[in-house]
Amino acid sequence: MENKNLQFPDFDFAQGELLLINKPYKWTSFDVVGKIRNSLKPLKLKVGHAGTLDPLATGLLIICTGKLTKQIDTFQAEEKEYTGTMILGASTPSFDMETEVDANFPINHLTEEEIYAATEPFKGDIEQYPPAHSAVKVNGERLYVKARLGEEVELRKRHVTVNEFEITRIALPEVDFRIVCSKGTYIRSLVSDFGKQLNNAAYLSKLTRTRSGNFLLKNAFEVADLVQYLRNKREEKRETEST
C-alpha cells in the first residue's frame, strides 16, 4: 500500500528527474531501474542509476530519468558515505555473505585498541583490489560471472580515497563502522583488508549507503511507495481521458 502521508512532487520525467531511492535488500540496482521504468509506461524514457549498489547492500541509489541521464557520470563521481557491520575472525570468497565462510580464525586476543588502530592505514589515498565477485568488467565480462563459474580472474589494483574510517561499535565478532570514500571504493575489499591488517580475517555482513554527494538516504523514497504512486497517477490519467 502507498503511504498516504508521503508528499510526492509534480514529476516531469521526460524533462528529467533525479529520484532518491532506498534500494531494498537483495535487489540489484538494475532491478530498481527496471521497476521504475516499467511503472512509467507507456512513456518511453531513458532511466539509469548513478552508482551501483551490491544486491546485499541497501541504501541510497540515485535514479535519473529523461534528459538528466546525461548527468549520471557527474552524480556518480561524488563522494559516498556508508555504514555497516563486519564479522571478524572469518573470511568468505566474496568478502560478504553471498558465499559461505571458508576459513575461521581466533579473535579472543584482539583488543579494542588494536581494532581502532587498524583503521589508520586505510585513511587517505590507497590501492585496493576489487572482489572477484564484483561487477567490474575484464575483457567485457563481469568478474562475478567468472567467479561463480570457478574460473580464474585477473584482478587489477585501483586507486581510491578513504576520507573517514570510523569504528562505531565493537561487539565481537561484530564491528560496526562508518566510511566516507571516493567513487569506486569497494567496501567489501576494505573490510577484507582490514581483517588482514589485524593478522586475522573479516567479511562484510551489512552495508548501507547513507549519502552520495549532497544527497541523503533520509530523503529517499521507498521503491514500493514510489511505484504505487506512479501507478495511481497513471490510472487517474486513464480515467480522466476516458470520461
From TrEMBL:
Q: Which residues form a coiled coil?
A: none
Which residues does UniProt mark as catalytic?
D54 (nucleophile)
Q: Which domain of life is it from?
A: Bacteria
**What are the recorded GO MF terms, alphabetically?**
tRNA pseudouridine(55) synthase activity
Pfam families attached to this UniProt entry: TruB_N (PF01509)
Q: Which UniProt keywords apply?
A: Isomerase, tRNA processing
Domain Pseudouridine synthase II N-terminal, first and last residues per copy? 46-187
| Assigned EC number | 5.4.99.25
Q: Which InterPro entries match?
A: PsdUridine_synth_cat_dom_sf, PsdUridine_synth_N, tRNA_psdUridine_synth_TruB
Report the catalytic activity: uridine(55) in tRNA = pseudouridine(55) in tRNA
Which SUPFAM superfamilies is this protein grouped with? Pseudouridine synthase (SSF55120)
The record's comment on protein family reads: Belongs to the pseudouridine synthase TruB family. Type 1 subfamily.
This molecule's function is given as: Responsible for synthesis of pseudouridine from uracil-55 in the psi GC loop of transfer RNAs.
Looking up NCBIfam families in the UniProt record yields: TruB (TIGR00431)
Q: Any idea what this protein is called?
A: tRNA pseudouridine synthase B
Q: Which organism is it from?
A: Pedobacter boryungensis
